[in-house]
Design a protein that fits this description.
Layout: H1 2-11, H2 14-17, E1 31-32, H3 57-61, E2 70-74, H4 77-88, H5 97-103, E3 110-120, E4 130-135, E5 144-147, E6 150-155, E7 164-171, E8 174-178, H6 182-189, E9 195-196, H7 199-207, E10 210-214, H8 216-237, H9 246-259, E11 262-272, E12 275-284, H10 289-295, E13 313-320, H11 323-342, H12 347-360, E14 367-377, E15 385-393, H13 396-422, E16 432-446, E17 449-461, H14 470-482, E18 487-494, E19 497-502, H15 505-516, H16 526-532, E20 540-544, H17 546-562, H18 567-575, E21 590-597, E22 600-608, H19 609-640
Helix pairs in contact: 8-9, 9-11, 10-11, 11-12, 12-13, 17-19
Length: about 650
C-alpha cells in the first residue's frame, strides 16, 4: 500500500500530477506533408553555398520522415557546450563536445560548432541514425560515389580522430551525414511524407536551445522487431527440449503496446549557467486508458497536506485524482499483465489475482482526491530511506478495513506470482524471495492515534552454487535498505487524512504531528516553499533533490562495499582523501509540474545549477573512492597471489 500512490506518482508521472487549468508554453505536434523531393540526386556535390545562404534549422528538421522515431535539434553546439561548462563549473573543464565531433568528421567541410539535427528513421529493417550539419564548403564534400548523390568520405586522418568513413549528402547549404551506411540517408530522402512544422514549432526552434520530437508508436515498433529477431535467434540456438522465456517476452510486448498509446512527445529545453529548463507536451491516444487516467486528474487546491519537514528530502509529490474515475482505466491498463502471468496456472494463482482485483475496485469509493508523499534519506543505521504518504479519505473505518484486506490479498498474489516468476527459464540461478506478512491492528498508539502495522519478513534463499558469502551479503543488503526493523509499514487515520509511513516509529510520530497541525508542514520549509512558488496554480508538483538521491543510492553501495574491503584499505582510502561520502550541502530543488488538457499532458522540469553541481560532485567523489579501493585490492591480491574478491551485490 505504501507504494500504491508512490508508484503511480513515479511510474505514471504526469498522469498523477495532472489536474489544473494552466497555460505552459505551447509545444505543438508536427503534422505530415506530401511527397518528398525526388529520391535520386546528382552524383556530383552541389556548388558551394555560403553558410549565410543556407536554409534554416526548421528546414533541416523538416527533412525527417513523418514517421521518424526520434528527431532532435540543437540550435548551436558551441553555445550548448559553453553553457554546460558554465552550468557545471570546474567539473566540466574537460568537456570538449565540439572538438570530439570535429575529430571524427572530414576536416573543413562542416560547421560542427553550429546547429545540428539528429534523425532516427523508423522504416528501415536495420535502423541507423543520420545527422544534419551546416556545410561550410560543399565543394569539399568529395569521395567515393555511394549513389543518389551520396559520397563516402574518409575521416580521422587529419584531426587524429577514429579512422573510418562516413556517408554524406550535400543539401542546400547543409550536409546529411550517416556514420554507418548510405542506406540511412536514402531512407530519409525517400520518405513519402515529411514532418511539417506548425508556426509554434518553428517559434520553438528559434527560441530554444534544444528541441526534441519522439514518436513512441514508431519506437515501439522498432523494439518489437528487435524482440522478435532476438526471439528467433534464441530459438535457433536453444538445445533440444530447452524451455524458452515466453512470459518475459510477452510482458515486454505488453509494455510496448501500452507505449503506443503515447502518440507523440515534444520537448523544448534551454541550458544556462543557472540551470536547465524543459517543457514537454505529451499526446495520448484519445479513448485510451492512459488518456482516461489523465482525465481523472483534479486541481491541487492546497499543497499544505500535513507532510513533515525534513532536511534530507529526496522526493516530494503533490497531486489530485478522482479515484472513482481513475480506478477502472487503471485496472484495464494493468490487469492484462497479471492475466498473462496467471495464464494456464493453478487455481490458487487465479484466485489470488481475482481477490486482488475485487479489493482494488473498492478503493475509488474510499479515497479522497488529494495526496502527497515525501521520501527522505534515513539516519545512519536506519535503512536506506524513509517515506511518508498522506491522502484524504472519505470514511476512516472503511479505509482501515480495506487497507487490511488489500495488503493481505496483495501479498498473497505477490507470493504466487513470485513463485511463477522464479520458475521461468534461467531464473534458477537467481536468489528466491519469500515474504511472510503479519498485520497487527492497533499495534501502537502515538499521540492518541491508533497505528496499525504491516510487517513483511523477506526470506532470501541463494542458489546452491552461489559463493559462500552470498547469503550474508544478501542479508546485509536487505538490512541496509530497510533497517534493523525490516520492512514495516505503519498506517493511521488522522481526521479525514490517511497517513502511511515506511520507517521506524519516530517517522510515524513526525508524520502524525504534521497531519494534526502540531508540527510545521513541509511547505513551510524554505527550499520547498521557494520551489512551490514557481508552480502554476492547481498543477501537480514534484520536487527532487538529485544530490540527496545520489548520496542515498551511492551511500548504500559504499556501505555494502565497505563490508567486503579490508579495514586497512578503507583507512588508507580515507587518509588519501577518499573517505565515505559526506552529506551534500543544502541546494535548490529540482521542480517538475504537470497538467492535463483533454488527452494532452503539459509537463515542465526546472533543474537548478546548485543541485546539479552537488550531484556531479558526489558522483565524482564516489568514482574516485571506488577506483582507489579497487586498485588497492588488486595490489593486495597480486601480493598474495590470489584473485581479487567479487564485488558486493549492487556494486
Amino acid at each position: 500500500m505504501i507504494t500504491r500512490t508512490a508508484l503511480v506518482a513515479v511510474l505514471v508521472a504526469g498522469l498523477l500530477l495532472a489536474g489544473c487549468k494552466s497555460e505552459p508554453e505551447p509545444v505543438s505536434q508536427p503534422t505530415t506533408s506530401g511527397p518528398a523531393a525526388p529520391t535520386e540526386t546528382p552524383t556530383e556535390a552541389p556548388p558551394s553555398e555560403a553558410p549565410a545562404e543556407a536554409k534554416g534549422i526548421d528546414w533541416a528538421v523538416g527533412q525527417a520522415p513523418a514517421d521518424a522515431g526520434v528527431v532532435a535539434a540543437v540550435a548551436s553546439l558551441s553555445d550548448l557546450e559553453t553553457n554546460l561548462k558554465a552550468l557545471l563549473g570546474p567539473d566540466a573543464e574537460d568537456l570538449k563536445m565540439v572538438e570530439e565531433i570535429r575529430r571524427n568528421l572530414p576536416a573543413g567541410a562542416f560547421d560542427v560548432a553550429g546547429p545540428l539535427v539528429f534523425i532516427l528513421p523508423a522504416g528501415m529493417e536495420k535502423t541507423e541514425p543520420v545527422v544534419l550539419l551546416r556545410a561550410t564548403d560543399a565543394s569539399a564534400i568529395t569521395g567515393k560515389n555511394a549513389g543518389a548523390g551520396i559520397v563516402e568520405m574518409d575521416v580521422g586522418e587529419e584531426a587524429g580522430g577514429q579512422r573510418g568513413t562516413v556517408f554524406v549528402l550535400a543539401l542546400d547549404g547543409w550536409a546529411m551525414v550517416a556514420p554507418k551506411s548510405a542506406a540511412a540517408i536514402k531512407a530519409v530522402m525517400r520518405a513519402e511524407k515529411k514532418l511539417k512544422l506548425t508556426d509554434d514549432q518553428r517559434a520553438a526552434l528559434a527560441d530554444h536551445m534544444v528541441w526534441l520530437h519522439l514518436n513512441p508508436p514508431a519506437l515501439a515498433d522498432l523494439a518489437v522487431r528487435a524482440l522478435d529477431k532476438a526471439q528467433e535467434q534464441m530459438r535457433a540456438q536453444a538445445a533440444p527440449g530447452q524451455a524458452m522465456p515466453e512470459e518475459p517476452l510477452k510482458l515486454l510486448h505488453w509494455m510496448l503496446d501500452v507505449a503506443k498509446d503515447v502518440t507523440a512527445v515534444d520537448v523544448v529545453g534551454d541550458v544556462t549557467a543557472e540551470g536547465i529548463r524543459a517543457q514537454a507536451r505529451v499526446d495520448l491516444a484519445e479513448g485510451s486508458n492512459l488518456a482516461a487516467i489523465a482525465g481523472a486528474g483534479v486541481p491541487v487546491r492546497d499543497y499544505a497536506m500535513g507532510l513533515p519537514v525534513t532536511e534530507n528530502l529526496v522526493l516530494a509529490v503533490w497531486g489530485g485524482m478522482d479515484w472513482q474515475k481513475a480506478m477502472p482505466p487503471m485496472k484495464a491498463l494493468i490487469k492484462p499483465m497479471f492475466d498473462m502471468l496467471a495464464e494456464g496456472k493453478d487455481e490458487k494463482t487465479r484466485k489470488a489475482l481475482d481477490d486482488v482485483w475485487a479489493s482494488y475496485e473498492k478503493w475509488g469509493g474510499v479515497l479522497g482526491d488529494r495526496l502527497g508523499m515525501v521520501m527522505e534519506t534515513a539516519p545512519p543505521g536506519a535503512g536506506m530511506f524513509q517515506l511518508v504518504e498522506v491522502f484524504t479519505v472519505k470514511d476512516a473505518e472503511a479505509y482501515r478495513a480495506l487497507f487490511k484486506d488489500y495488503m493481505t490479498t496483495s501479498m498473497d498474489a505477490m507470493d504466487v506470482l513470485m513463485k511463477q516468476f522464479m520458475g521461468m527459464p534461467g531464473m534458477g540461478a537467481m536468489p528466491s524471495v519469500k515474504a511472510d506478512v503479519t498485520f497487527s491492528e492497533a499495534a501502537e498508539t502515538i499521540d492518541d492515534v491508533r497505528v496499525d502495522i504491516m510487517r513483511i519478513a523477506l526470506q532470501i534463499d541463494v542458489p546452491p552454487d552461489a559463493p559462500p558469502q552470498a547469503a550474508q551479503q544478501m542479508k546485509d543488503m536487505m538490512e541496509m535498505i530497510y533497517g534493523p526493523e525490516g520492512l514495516a509499514i505503519r498506517m493511521a487515520v488522522v481526521g479525514k487524512m490517511g497517513v502511511v509511513a515506511l520507517g521506524g516509529k519516530e517517522t510515524m510520530a513526525r508524520a502524525i504531528a504534521a497531519a494534526k497541525g502540531q508540527a510545521p508542514d513541509l511547505t513551510t520549509q524554505p527550499n520547498v516553499a521557494k520551489a512551490l512558488q514557481r508552480v502554476p496554480g492547481g498543477q501537480g508538483a514534484m520536487l527532487l533533490s538529485a544530490s540527496n538521491y545520489m548520496y542515498m543510492a551511492m551511500g548504500m553501495v559504499d556501505r555494502m562495499m565497505a563490508k567486503n574491503v579490508p579495514p586497512e584499505i578503507l583507512a588508507e582510502a580515507e587518509k588519501a582523501g577518499h573517505g565515505p561520502l559526506a552529506k551534500p550541502p543544502a541546494a535548490d530543488l529540482i521542480l517538475g509540474t504537470g497538467a492535463a488538457e483533454g488527452h494532452t499532458l503539459r509537463l515542465m522540469v526546472d533543474v537548478p545549477a546548485s543541485d546539479l553541481r552537488a550531484a556531479v560532485q558526489l558522483v565524482k567523489q564516489f568514482g574516485e573512492r571506488m577506483e582507489f579501493i579497487m586498485k588497492k585490492q588488486q595490489e593486495m591480491a597480486e601480493k598474495q597471489q590470489q584473485p581479487p574478491p567479487p564485488p558486493a551485490p549492487g556494486t
